[in-house]
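EI: anyone free to look at a 69-residue chain?
SC: sure, send it
EI:
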Amino acid sequence: MTRTFTALIHKESDWYVADCPEVGTVSQGKTVEEALANITEAAELYLEEFPLPETSHTLMTTFEVTAYA
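SC: here you go
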């Protein structure tokens, strides 16, 4: 069975850090592609031990806040 998850990727120094909020895994890579491959592997390994129940897809949206300097 194949499921779709979210990867949130941001850059920290020379690394791209990937976070999968649905599974709770985090990984990194020198490129976005490497970070995505690593988070995919981390999520697969995690789900082998701790399967998630069937649920609906996560809703992702954006919002704005006022930033004070």
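EI: The mean pLDDT is 92.
SC: 👍
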